[in-house]
């Protein structure tokens, strides 16, 4: 495999993993800000951890019902958290899918490279066999030429000798 192809593969893998990292950071930021927002805006949210729980269930659109926004302002905030949550969780899903697809592409490229290497080895073997056959044919031809030269010499020598008179 060429050095350039390896660099491209590493770059794609790095981009896919970086995308997942950025998506997870966004999820954490939205959950933290959502938790703080619900804690501040909704009087029924007694603690920051309750705010985080409400932010998570809202962003993930799970809505267990154990905690719900109770004021108009916290409900409006919940709409924003739902929209951001859907967007960012979609990014996380897409980033994970990109990593899996990238792995599949790498596996296919590796498989194709192995097939090419096998084909190259087979060709090298065939060339080696053909080279041996050609060398053998050259030897056979050299022997035939040597025999032909010997026969030609004998004929020429016989032609130069005087023939016996009867």
Explained architecture:
The chain is mainly α. 84% of the residues lie in helices and 0% in strands. The chain has one domain (3-119): Orthogonal Bundle (Helix Hairpins). It has helices at 3-41, 48-59, 72-160. The termini are far apart. The relative contact order is 0.09.
Topology of this protein?
Blueprint (H helix, E strand, L loop, with lengths): L2 H39 L6 H12 L12 H89 L6
Helix pairs in contact: 1-2, 1-3, 2-3
Give the domain tally. Answer: 1
Give me the strand/helix succession: HHH
| Radius of gyration based on Cα positions | 41 Å
Summed up, the helix count is 3
CATH class call: Mainly Alpha
Low-confidence stretches: none
* Share of β-strand residues: under 5%
Briefly note the CATH topology name: Helix Hairpins
Helix content: over 70%
Structural class: mainly alpha
Write down the overall mean pLDDT. Answer: 88
Shape: rod-shaped
Please give the CATH architecture: Orthogonal Bundle
State the distance separating the first and last CA atoms. 84 Å
Summarize the structure.
It is built from 3 helices and no strands. The chain is mainly α and 166 residues long. The model has no long low-confidence stretch (mean pLDDT 88).
List keywords for this structure.
single chain, about 170 residues, mainly alpha, Helix Hairpins, 3 helices, about 0% strand, rod-shaped
């Amino acid at each position: 495999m060429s050095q350039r192809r390896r660099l491209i593969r590493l770059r794609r893998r790095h981009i896919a993993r970086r995308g997942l990292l950025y998506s997870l950071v966004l999820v954490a930021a939205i959950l933290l800000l959502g938790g703080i927002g619900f804690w501040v805006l909704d009087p029924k949210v007694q603690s920051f951890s309750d705010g985080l729980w409400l932010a998570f269930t809202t962003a993930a659109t799970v809505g267990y019902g154990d905690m719900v926004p109770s004021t108009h302002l916290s409900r409006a905030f919940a709409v924003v958290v739902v929209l951001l949550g859907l967007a960012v969780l979609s990014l996380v899903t897409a980033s994970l899918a990109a990593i899996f697809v990238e792995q599949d592409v790498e596996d296919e490229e590796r498989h194709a490279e192995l097939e090419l290497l096998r084909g190259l080895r087979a060709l090298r073997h065939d060339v080696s066999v053909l080279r041996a056959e050609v060398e053998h044919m050259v030897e056979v031809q050299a022997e035939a030429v040597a025999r032909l030269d010997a026969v030609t010499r004998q004929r020429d020598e016989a032609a130069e000798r005087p023939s016996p008179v009867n």
